Fold this protein.
Amino acid sequence: MVVGVSRVEILLVEDDITLGMGIEYTLKSEGYNVSLAGSKKQALEKIEVKEFDLYIIDITLPDGNGFDICEKIREQNNSPIIFLTAEDDEVNVVKAFDLGADDYISKPFRVKEFISRIKAIFRRSGKEIRETIKTGNLEIDYLSNRVMKKGELINLTPAEYKLLVLLVENKKQVLTRNVIIEKLWDIEGSFIDDNTLSVYVKRLRHKIEDDPKKSRYIKTVRGVGYIWNEEVL
């Protein structure tokens, strides 16, 4: 399975707010999507409604422990699990692996090693993390959030970039205007409505299309929404 970095979903379970936000920032800087849970209860609620590509779990939590979360995950899927904790005694390490953990990292940890071990886990699990994708004469670089057209950089706003990635990653599928608006909601600190979406689409077309009046990439499905009409490599 090959996915773009921006589509990799990580659940981080960490009750230390400062540390959790720091790890979240580090992971997002690498292009991953991160959901942060500060307790066992919050983690289990998120697990019930969504399957993540990777789980990073602390052992000691205010309302329980990470082992319970690990057991619940393994009842549902085989996505990789990393324990990231100060509890580095042999008993906890052995228990973590017995429950199905893929790695065990002790705090404090080195950031570069941490990221390297995450990438290694994805490689072992058969999920190759794709850093760039090509579609038509466009190339999207997930790590730098940049888009090139025929080798030249296109200057996109955060909302335009997110709109482009959303359409590309759902190629050949019609996305309703409501779905797109929900995904773009408040990306630039302002309200996103139907009229605003139309403006974003128009601006994006002018930047990526050779002829915006004869759109090659973004097709309008009248009364419904939009569809990305180009193959993605």
